[in-house]
Sequence to fold (106 residues):
Amino acid sequence: VTAPAADASQIYTCVRPSGTAPVLGLGRSNSSSWVKYAQCQLNNSMLDADPKSSAVNLVVDGSFGTKTDASVRKFQNCVHINPDGVIGVNTWTALSYWNSRSGFAC
Fold:
């Protein structure tokens, strides 16, 4: 699954796993279902990632790699959160907010 085209509206339904959202990031013990949820939300929250960086439209595969890290940082920058690549409380809140809207964070 990849992000919608630049002129598309949000089209993916992101299924939230049960339990409390964990802190996700490179090198952390990541739950693939939560990573998939985050990847889906990132795709729905950004119109188009910068093709010149590694922040590209994500494949929702549950692997928190360098492309997911770059997309998290880009999203954090767009919503004025310290771009550390870690999905913690503030980033989960911002992702939830942007996934409940019909527009894009950036």
